[in-house]
Design brief:
By secondary structure, this protein is an alpha+beta fold. It folds into 2 domains: 179 residues, Jelly Rolls (Sandwich), CATH 2.60.120; 39 residues. Helices cover 21% and strands 37% of the residues. It has 2 helices and 13 strands; from the N terminus they run βαββββββββββββα. The termini are far apart.
Length: 223
């Protein structure tokens, strides 16, 4: 079975709204109705965008399994991940479902992971195309990586059906993430100095303007 889905915001809210707060260690299989996103090996990080090619990645076991594909991508210390967009072709092998194919993303510490399920409503095997985008800030799902600057991605199955060699597959596609760098401490100092200089200059200009106005009035009075 092949089908195509264009994400709408109602679906996205339901999908992403359930996707916050996973923990990295291995855990029991998660019901297909919980969580939902995609990513991959060759990463192009250009300023405010991270593009990941997720082609040919297996979806094997439950979250935390040593058999899952895990990627660690350098995005900069304490960087904020603030948006997500995707264009994907996925396949689930019977009896596994498309809604079982998931991806977790978060800091390398594994704290407060966000999970993405492109086919959250597709409780059947087969292949399907998914595309969409979301501002993670709007959904309360934006997060920061740690001091090491690593974004951790783990491809996993919400329900492991034990299909060999794999339950599902990210056949092709890309995932794009919006990344906001956090200024270095020295940058904050320079910003503060610049603001102080600006305020000081404005204060001097105001005093000069007031002083000049007063002198003119005095001369006019004595004329």
């Amino acid at each position: 079975m092949t089908c195509t889905h264009k994400a709408d915001f109602k679906w996205l809210m339901a999908a992403l709204g359930l996707a916050w707060g996973l923990s990295a260690p291995a855990q029991a299989a998660t019901p297909a109705s919980a969580q939902t996103p995609p990513l991959t090996s060759f990463a192009a990080f250009a300023g405010s965008g991270l593009v990941l090619d997720v082609s040919d990645i297996d979806s094997k076991d439950a979250l935390g399994s040593p058999f899952n594909t895990v990627l660690n991508v350098q995005v900069g210390a304490n960087a904020l991940i603030n948006s997500l967009s995707w264009d994907l072709q996925l396949q689930a092998f019977d009896p596994s479902w498309l809604s079982h194919i998931k991806l977790s993303l978060g800091p390398s510490s594994g704290a407060g992971l966000v999970a993405f399920t492109p086919g959250i409503n597709d409780e059947h095997s087969g292949s399907a195309h998914y595309s969409g985008s979301a501002n993670l800030v709007d959904y309360g799902l934006a997060f920061q990586v740690g001091e090491d600057g690593l974004l951790r991605l783990e491809f996993f199955e919400g329900v492991d059906n034990g299909v060999e060699p794999t339950d599902g597959k990210w056949l092709s596609g890309t995932l794009s993430l919006g990344v906001s760098p956090v200024p270095e401490p020295s940058s904050y100092g320079l910003m503060a100095l610049g603001l102080m200089a600006l305020l000081s200059a404005r204060g001097i200009a105001r005093r000069q303007a007031k002083g000049g106005g007063g002198g003119n009035a005095g001369r006019e009075k004595t004329a």
